[in-house]
Amino acid sequence: MSESNALTRAQLKTPKAAAIAGIVFSVLLIAIIGMLRRSIPADPLDPGAWLVTEPKTVTLALNLIPFAGVAFLWFIGVLRDRLGRQEDRFFATVFFGSALLFLAMLFAAAAITGTIVLMATSADPGELIKSPTFRFARAAAYIIMNVYATKMAAVFMFSTSTVVIYTTIAPRWIAYVGYVLALVLLIGSYYFSWSFAVLPVWVLLVSVYILFDNLGRQPAAP
Q1: Predicted structure pTM score
Q2: Alpha carbons 75 and 220: distance in angstroms, whole number
Q3: With contact defined as beta carbons under 8 Å apart, do 202 and 178 qualify?
Q4: Based on C-alpha coordinates, what's the Rg of the chain?
Q5: What is the tens place of the pLDDT at every residue in 114-165?
Q6: Does 53 score more than 90 pLDDT?
Q7: Is the model's pLDDT at 76 over the cut of 80?
Q8: Inter-residue contact 21 to 74 (CB < 8 Å)
Q9: What is the 3-state secondary structure (H, E, C) of the chain?
Q10: Is the separation of the CB atoms in 201 and 23 below 8 Å?
Q11: How far is the C-alpha of 2 from the C-alpha of 19, rounded, in Å?
């Protein structure tokens, strides 16, 4: 490796505290889920009264989603950096692809919900609630989030836990916890509206471990 390449790699080295991004994502997503679950009924066929009573809370939650998405992307980068040369192409592709699909569906559901709120504030909410447009958009956002996004989140947790076991980038018990929580997310999403919160809880667990492990390492000799 040439001296210039070595210098560039040193400058681009992931900071030790980069795992904070995972913590930021976890805190933001838990707050977002809390605000949305308190404001929007779990039933996708709800009458839409929340458009009148809770528009500001829903808008705040939706505006936080892009920041959570950026933090999640940074968290993925932290995981790939920690894997280094141990990265397996198959599992890396699955966990990276499922993470990106999860983000895409999260943004899509947020965009549809945001459109509903915007239409309600620029027109008569009562008329919007009675329209087929509202029922279609509400059902579409629900299906994208609770069917497709949750499944991609579960796949992300399964594949990442498998990578943890094979590469030992984190303790095995974290991987086993990931398997259990992924099953809860995969199956429990049909029965428990709060089951989606297991993803940020697990990311928080992984991020806290990586952060303390990185900070506890001695700097390499020049």
Answers
A1: 0.82
A2: 23
A3: yes
A4: 20
A5: 888 887 776 666 666 777 878 888 888 888 988 899 999 999 999 889 888 8
A6: no
A7: yes
A8: yes
A9: CCHHHHHHHHHCCCCHHHHHHHHHHHHHHHHHHHHHHHHCCCCCCCCCCHHHHCHHHHHHHHHHHHHHHHHHHHHHHHHHHHHHHHCCHHHHHHHHHHHHHHHHHHHHHHHHHHHHHHHHHHCCHHHHHHCHHHHHHHHHHHHHHHHHHHHHHHHHHHHHHHHHHHHCCCCHHHHHHHHHHHHHHHHHCCCCCCHHHHHHHHHHHHHHHHHHHHHHCCCCCC
A10: no
A11: 30
In this structure, which amino acid lies at residue 89?
Answer: R
> Is 14:77 a contact under the CB 8 Å cutoff?
yes
Residue reference for tokens 């080295």: 13
Q: Which residue's entry shows tokens 């559901």?
A: 109
Judged on CB neighbours under 10 Å (0-12, 13-18, 19+), 30 is middle
98 pLDDT more than 80:
yes
Please report, for the chain, the start and end positions of each structural domain, with discontinuous segments joined by +.
18-211
Tokens standing for residue 193:
């509206």
Write the single-letter amino acid at 135. R
